[in-house]
Amino acid sequence: MIETAFTPWLSLGGGVLIGVASTLLMFFVGRIMGATGVLAGVVQPASGEDFAWRAAVLAGMISGPAVVWLVSGNMPAVQVPVSTAALVIGGLIVGVGVTFGSGCTSGHGVCGMARLSPRSIVATMTFMVFTFVTVFLLRHVFGA
């Protein structure tokens, strides 16, 4: 069975950092910080200026573990209790979902909810319902 290690203080700290980062991006650039949109804009930027801020945000996301390592001397532990095939299938499902949902959990759940966007509220409720159903099925029906 997959064990969930709830870390309230680390989770709160991460949430605060994401909230501050998304607020600063909206304040200084006037854009919503949805991870999928940021990545898509790096792949197909609308302009050089558009590419610059997106590349900076993406570099910050990627370099986070290196900063933890420099500060603490330890790399963050990453445990993925599923097979590579499950990761690939899950990634494809998420990719399809963010395409049809016009955004990801960070864009809708953090930024859209903060702006009281009806579309984001519905999208976030949909994410949460399917998350609950998936966890229930995996833990209590399939016994993973």
UniProtKB/TrEMBL annotation:
Keyword list (alphabetical) reads:
Cell inner membrane, Cell membrane, Membrane, Transmembrane, Transmembrane helix, Transport
Q: Give the membrane topology, semicolon-separated if more than one.
A: Multi-pass membrane protein
Q: Its principal location?
A: membrane
- Provide the protein name: Sulphur transport domain-containing protein
A Pfam family hit: Sulf_transp
Cell membrane found in the keyword field: yes
Does the entry feature the keyword Glycoprotein, yes or no? no
